[in-house]
Amino acid sequence: MDTNIGFAHFLAQADALGKTVLFLLLALSVASWYLIVTKTIANYLAKRRVESFLEQFWAADSLQEIRTALLRQPRDHAFAELAHDALEAASDSEKHGLHKLAAAGGLGEFLTRLLRNGIDQEATRVEHGLTILASAGSAAPYIGLFGTVWGIYHALVNIGLSGQGTLDKVSGPVGEALIMTAMGLAVAIPAVLAFNAFNRRNRVWLAMLDAFAHDLYAIITVGEKANSSAGEPRPLHIVKEA
Known about the structure:
The protein is about 75% helix and about 0% strand. It contains 8 helices and no strands. The longest helix is centred in the N-terminal third of the chain and has 44 residues, at about 15-60. The relative contact order is 0.15. It has about 240 residues and is mainly alpha-helical. It has one domain. The radius of gyration is 28 Å and the shape is rod-shaped. The protein has helices at about 5-15, 15-60, 65-70, 80-95, 105-125, 130-160, 165-175, 180-220.
């Protein structure tokens, strides 16, 4: 019995198509783990920055103090960017009036469009890379299965040519071909789990941003601090000005 079987032996026996399948699985695995690691770190850092920003934001005594604080700090997350844009728009309307086409309909309408646009841009940004994870999770098992079928086909052809169908002749080639299935699953499972985790995080993140946008609108147009961002997030139901 040939004891020199395993992954190295499989690589040596694989043809061009088999190596192409292995390369595809390897590429999907590298891309998936790169996104998993980088997005996990980025999400953690963004959460820390937003928690610190919201704490300072709600501790401010006036809009002017908030404006001054935003000028001193980098706008490196969506909450700071949204607050800066909304306060800048309100400040421009106070100084120069609402004469631009973008401000047609009054300050309330202008802020509504500005805040919704900011939320939409953040939704697009946080979805970056999820398509690759979804593709890896759905396609990798089938790519691995294709490699398995191709490997078994070659194993059966070799067995037929040798005329020996004993167990020691079958188990080695078939076991090596099944490595493809295992590799496909090893690529797909982390990608699917990460995709679901990031999707849930994005829903929570955008709900928090939506609630913060509601608070910004209330502060600027009504002058009331509705501290919903510190508690349960609320959907953005903006009432148009009469």
